[in-house]
Write a structure and sequence with these properties.
It contains 16 helices and 34 strands. It is an alpha/beta fold. Helix 3 crosses helix 9 and helix 11 packs across helix 13. The chain is globular, with a radius of gyration of 26 Å. The relative contact order is 0.11.
């Protein structure tokens, strides 16, 4: 059996998880935002050393069946508004008003497009349209547009217009500006969703394209025959050339929610909220009755798009979020982040801003000598200096009071991300670099009494990617069509799916496929799912969408676990001075990998796992499961 290599690229750290059957190896490396391929290959090199020792890089590549990659770069780019300026060309004088009806739409349109909108008045006049088009493109590019989206009201007219556009601006010219045609991108009948999807995809595309093709070319240089696969936000994977940028948005969190689903099944939890705290964002998702909560037409920053998304929300609060004091004397957290470069002040890379990572170092929760399993030494004095200058002095309080105030503000903001989803039996699955450190404090404020920290918490989203298959879903609107028309469309979709999977590298006979009819409401939500033979009437504002889902099944890890009864006291390896409100206090340190199933103790305690630290506050207890995961209970 060959290895499956999964990489989850975050804003600060990149996680690598290598799976073969029940064998799991993992490591982490700093993200290199200037050249993402650098941390990509450094991560694989570090993983190869874990498996084969020094010099095992080529051997791991040649004993790997597939490499799957997900990234928060698109999510972070949108959160921080770092991407290309877009231009929009249309024949609809009312389009701007249609695209900016909500506050979220107005804000994002202003950031992505602004005034770079060109209105064509002679779309059906062949003598005037060419000169009008040239004028529109020149105007938009002079305003700084780096990519263009064309949104013509009529589908057939837009197709004809594309021919005119390519004649005037052929793609082989060095100065040609990339163009995306809205009808070409998706068949969604909702014009607003379709155009927003095209705009968002154009914004995210260059962020992903530069790195992915660079990484793929470097892999080929090492004689790697199997393709690099992109992990998507629908929980499936596909080749680079068969992926669209919008489906990489929030793909890392989808890995986390797939892992959370596996945890829920293994332990029999009915309702699990996940919180994945990275350097830039915290991602919150929901699993109920062992099903991932999804949206038929997903939302990106509160704006509905044409594709299904897991209902995972990204909030601008992470371990690297910049802490500030506003003009009202309140502590704010994010949404901007120091990222991997320069990183938190304690990294010693020149960062001057205070972050939650610095706070945890200053409090004594993070050991500066064992961070990232001792691979990176942290500077506690720099952390204290940044917090003193940026928070304590503006507030006019001592360092200690500033630390407790930040801790409170951070926990409150994280709890606010969770509160709306909490049920009576909710379990919080906390992972990512910062999740286990803040989980109990945030859970307490959100009314959650049980927290699970998986033993793979530091790389849990990368681990979750292991549950994906190579898959694709094809959809067509068949509302009010006759039986013969539907049969023609079904045959076309069958050939399209067959061709797609062949291009992925798999024969149709190796794949599994299923057909269904989705009855969709006017707002894009799913009313119910049925089959082609169902002749029941639908409401006048509903649509029938024929969907074909095809997949090639990859090998998945097996996760079996249960909750043992408390048996023995947890083995304590030492203690650490942690700053409490009553002063510094020796706090027991527990090494997770040294514990037996059923080991337990009451907090306060610090649990050190591989590449992560868990804080167990006073009033909470810890229990080690038979899978080596950590269960934390609020004793109150």
């Amino acid at each position: 059996m060959k290895y499956l290599v999964n990489l989850d690229n975050g804003g600060t750290l990149t996680d690598i998880c290598v799976v073969r059957g029940s064998e799991v190896r993992y490591t982490k490396t700093l993200t290199t935002p200037v050249d993402l391929s650098e941390c990509f290959f450094k991560g694989i090199t570090k993983a190869s050393e874990e498996i084969y020792g020094a010099g095992g890089f080529i051997k791991l590549l040649h004993t790997t069946e597939l490499i799957r990659y997900s990234s928060t770069q698109g999510t972070n780019a949108l959160v921080e508004r770092k991407g290309p300026k877009l231009g929009l060309i249309t024949d609809d004088p009312h389009l701007h008003a249609k695209l900016t009806q909500s506050a979220n739409q107005k804000d994002l349109f202003e950031s992505l497009v602004g005034t770079r909108l060109a209105l064509l008045g002679h779309i059906h006049d062949p003598h005037k349209i060419e000169s009008e088009l040239v004028s529109a493109v020149n105007t938009l590019t002079n305003k700084g547009a780096e990519r263009l989206v064309v949104a013509i009201k009529d589908k057939d007219t837009e197709r004809e217009f594309k021919h005119v556009f390519l004649l005037q601006f052929p793609r082989h010219l060095l100065g040609s500006v990339p163009v995306l045609f809205s009808w070409e991108f998706t068949n969604d009948t909702s014009r607003t969703r379709r155009i927003w999807s095209a705009l968002l995809n154009s914004f995210l595309h260059p962020t992903m394209e530069r790195f992915l093709y660079s990484a793929e070319h470097r892999l080929k240089a090492h004689k790697v025959k199997n393709p690099l696969l992109i992990y998507r936000n629908d929980g499936a994977s596909s080749r680079v050339a068969k992926s669209v940028a919008l489906k990489t948005y929030s793909s890392g969190p989808r890995g986390g929610i797939e892992g959370t689903k596996a945890l829920a099944k293994a332990y029999g939890f009915n309702h699990v909220l996940m919180v994945d705290v990275g350097g830039t964002t915290s991602d919150v998702g929901e699993v109920e009755a062992h099903k991932i909560k999804t949206e038929r037409r997903g939302s990106v920053e509160g704006i509905q798009i044409s594709f299904e998304l897991s209902d995972v929300k990204s909030f601008g609060v992470g371990g690297g979020s910049i802490l500030r004091v506003d003009d009202k004397g309140s502590i704010t957290v994010g949404p901007d982040s120091v990222g991997a470069a320069p990183g938190p002040a304690c990294f010693g890379f020149g960062g001057k801003e205070a972050t939650m990572t610095d706070v945890n170092v200053a409090l004594g929760i993070i050991d500066p000598d064992t961070y990232l399993n001792g691979q990176q030494k942290l500077d506690k004095e720099r952390a204290i200096q940044a917090i003193s200058e940026k928070i304590a002095k503006p507030l006019g309080v001592s360092l200690e009071k500033a630390l407790f105030a930040i801790q409170e503000a951070y926990a409150q903001k994280l709890a606010a991300c969770l509160s709306a989803h909490v049920q009576k039996d909710t379990v919080l699955a906390a992972f990512g670099g910062g999740g286990p450190m803040s989980a109990c404090l945030a859970a307490k404020k959100a009314g959650i009494k049980r927290v699970i920290v998986p033993k793979l918490a530091a790389v849990f989203s990368a681990y979750g990617i292991s549950f994906s298959d190579v898959a694709q879903t094809f959809e067509r609107d068949i509302t009010d069509l006759s039986k013969s028309e539907i049969e023609t469309i079904q045959a076309q979709m069958h050939e399209q799916a067959k061709r797609h999977m062949f291009q992925e590298g798999y024969n149709w006979s190796e794949c599994k496929h299923e057909w269904k009819v989705v009855v969709e409401n006017a707002d894009g939500s799913e009313d119910h799912v049925t089959h082609l033979g169902d002749t029941a009437q639908i409401n006048v504002d509903q649509r029938r969408i024929l969907a074909c889902h095809v997949r090639y099944e990859l090998s998945h890890p097996s996760l079996r676990a249960s909750l043992p009864k408390p048996k023995t006291s947890a083995k304590v390896s030492g203690s650490r001075e942690v700053l409490q409100e009553e002063g510094k206090r020796p706090t027991p340190v527990v090494i997770l990998l040294d514990q037996q199933a059923g080991a337990h103790m009451d907090g306060p305690a610090i649990v050190e796992g591989p590449y992560f630290t868990t804080r167990v506050p006073e009033g909470w207890s810890l229990l080690i499961t038979d899978n080596g995961d950590l269960i934390l209970e609020d004793k109150a």
